[in-house]
Amino acid sequence: MFDINKIIRKNIKNLTPYSSARDEFWGDASVFLDANENPFNFPYNRYPDPLQRELKLKISKIKNISPENIFLGNGSDEPIDLLIRAFCEPASENIVAIEPTYGMYKVAANINNVEYRKVLLDENYDIKAEKVLSASDKNSKLIFLCSPNNPTGNYLNEEEIKVVINNFDGIVVLDEAYIDFSSHKGFLETLINHPNLVILQTFSKAWGLASIRLGMAFAEKGIIDVLNKIKYPYNINLLTQKFVIDALDDYDKKTNWVETILNNREKLISELKTMPLIKRVFPTDANFFLIKVDDPIAVYNYLVDKKIIVRNRSNVTLCEGCLRVTVGTDEENKALINALKGFE
Ligand SMILES: *Cc1c(COP(=O)(O)O)cnc(C)c1O
Q1: Which domains does the chain possess?
Q2: What are the distances in angstroms from CA 325 to CA 62, 292, 329, 336?
Q3: Do 291 and 323 contact (CB within 8 A), yes or no?
């Protein structure tokens, strides 16, 4: 049985968090003389809401989940780091992740001096629960899964994910950064059944807001409370909070972008599949995909010469010969195709 008190670090459990002026009083008043702010230059003179209440309320309606189950961070990078810091004792405890996957889990583990254990995906870039679970031991606090996975693009087997969640005493972090592009709904609806599940989503991809830095973590209240306890007090600035509150009114814009990107993806993939240069296009459930070529470095450098940048993933385990292509606008995709046609 999952028990957060058994896995949280003792110093975090016992921590008295910083209490800001806005923690002590948040609400309606006419004179604010409590935070040593400049009284001029409203609204930028004021510290923002440390718990982003208005923004969370809006997100909660869109995601159909209670605000108390939402943590907001400076990108997904923040909850990734905070989860490791809250639950993993440096130098003795570990996290488990699939391989290949998003590079930040490993970097965050290394920064925190937490051992990082890799479990190789199978030849279809999919997981076997048993293999993931058997890489863990009593010192494993977190398992990181990413679905659709980066850089492979595929949606991981849901049944296997469930077996991992149901048989792990620590926390499973499921990164769904690309879920809006997927034909699957993801795990958010099932959060209620999984007290040891954290789902990460982001405004950086489908919402087109990578620059404003806003990531979401969804989990049971106990886990969210721990993240709030250790975050920087004002981790989401006012400009970001305001901007996203407005952006959320335009849900259709995001839906249309996703539809356009998925259409463009299918066009781009079918073009690439006709080209002898492209040995393989991997299945994808995201806004990017892997292509395999004989000489990835030559193709990469050739494209750079043409001012087109793709991601060279050929040095990544199981991605030998592969470049990762993000789906762009029609024009951008045509530029890629035309350039590739000229490769000798
Ligand atoms: C792009 C991406 C993110 C987004 O990170 P942010 O810090 O929210 O911009 C998260 N996870 C994965 C796997 C990604 O590829």
Answers
A1: 4-249 (3.40.640.10), 252-341 (3.90.1150.10)
A2: 30, 11, 12, 10
A3: yes
Phi, psi of 326 (to 5 degrees): -85, 140
pLDDT band at 78, cuts 50/70/90?
A: very high
Residue 122 Cα, ligand 1 centroid: separation in angstroms?
Answer: 23
Span 248-288, pLDDT tens digits? 999 999 999 999 999 999 999 999 999 999 999 999 999 99
- Please work out whether the CB of residue 152 comes within 6 Å of at least one atom of ligand 1: no
Instruction: State which ligand 1 atom lies nearest to the alpha carbon of 215.
Output: 8
Q: Is the CB of 100 under 6 A from ligand 1?
A: no
Nearest to residue 200, comparing CAs of 255, 149, 253, 125?
149
pLDDT in tens, 191-242: 999 999 999 999 999 999 999 999 999 999 999 999 999 999 999 999 999 9
Nearest residue (CA) to ligand 1, atom 7: 75
- What is the rounded average pLDDT for all residues in the chain? 97
State the pLDDT at residue 104.
98
- Sequence-distant (6+) residues with CB within 8 A of 291 are 272, 278, 280, 281, 282, 322, 323, 325
Task: Compute the distance between CA of residue 255 and CA of residue 24 in angstroms, rounded to an integer.
Answer: 39
Mutational test site, ligand 1, from 78, 80, 155, 175, max ligand atoms within 8 Å of CB: 175
pLDDT band at 1 (very low <50, low <70, confident <90, very high): confident
Q: Is the pTM of this model over 0.90?
A: yes
What pLDDT was estimated at residue 336?
98
Coil/strand/helix, residue 94: strand
Q: Is the CB of 204 within 6 Å of ligand 1?
A: yes
Average pLDDT over residues 34-41: 96
Scored b (16 or more CB within 10 A) or e, 81-101 reads bbbbbbbbbeeebbbbbbebb
